[in-house]
């Protein structure tokens, strides 16, 4: 079985549709979302409806949690807070209830899905380096854990540290390590200076992993952000992948 692992969609409909088309072209039959379906961009309703109807699982992200509630937005950047305030006005009660029903982590066969860290999932800590990865893997009960939140694809191995990950058409065989923690990158707002939508394909039968980069109509997505009255910086970062 091939699964598409989708991180940080962030209400970017154009990127999501391009990624789903690419994933289906490559034989994916399950679609697992690592949280932050909403926030930042202009199509939270549409992206939420697509994700909730996909065959697969979705976990709770910090933007999902904030958009589904009416509490303080303290801790978010000013642009993130503005986008979340707007998102709250766009989502209906049923959509907010769906966000509220999401669990912070899920186990799907031999893989765990989490938005941030396994050691404290709803503290929303970032895994950027080996010490944070090691803390999370200490709580990992499956061979693989897929995570998001940083918007930057990375692979960490237990007792190995950060591992090189090569992009190519044929994918790579998963390294032999007791546990792997894999950041799938971001569909809707990449932050590794590559504007293309990023996601991963996991082939469970052959133990393969593909990092895919997909071009999409980024100008249309950027215009939608501006048309919604959201901060111009959110539109610009789509073009730069920063």
Q: Structural class, from helix and strand content?
A: alpha/beta
Roughly what is the average pLDDT, rounded to an integer?
Answer: 94
Can you tell me the residue ranges where pLDDT is under 50 for at least 5 consecutive residues? none
What proportion strand? 15-25%
Q: So what's the overall shape?
A: globular
How many distinct folded domains?
1
Helical content stands at 25-40%
End-to-end Cα distance? 33 Å
Short account of what is shown:
The chain has 242 residues and is an alpha/beta fold. The protein has eight helices and eleven strands. The chain is 32% helix and 20% strand.
List the SSEs and their pairings.
Layout: E1 2-6, H1 13-25, E2 30-33, H2 44-52, H3 62-67, H4 78-90, H5 93-101, E3 105-108, E4 111-114, H6 130-137, E5 144-147, E6 154-157, E7 161-163, E8 172-173, E9 180-183, E10 197-203, E11 208-214, H7 218-227, H8 232-240
Parallel strand pairs: 1-2, 4-5, 5-9
Antiparallel strand pairs: 1-10, 3-4, 6-7, 6-9, 8-11, 10-11
Helix pairs in contact: 7-8
Fold and architecture overview:
The protein is α/β, with parallel strands linked by helices. The protein has a single domain, classed as Metallo-dependent phosphatases (Purple Acid Phosphatase, chain A, domain 2), CATH 3.60.21. Helices cover 32% and strands 20% of the residues. It has helices at residues 13-25, 44-52, 62-67, 78-90, 93-101, 130-137, 218-227, 232-240, and strands at residues 2-6, 30-33, 105-108, 111-114, 144-147, 154-157, 161-163, 172-173, 180-183, 197-203, 208-214. A six-stranded mixed β-sheet has the order 3-4-5-9-6-7, covered by helices on one side. Helix 7 packs antiparallel against helix 8 (232-240). The relative contact order is 0.19. The model has no long low-confidence stretch (mean pLDDT 94).
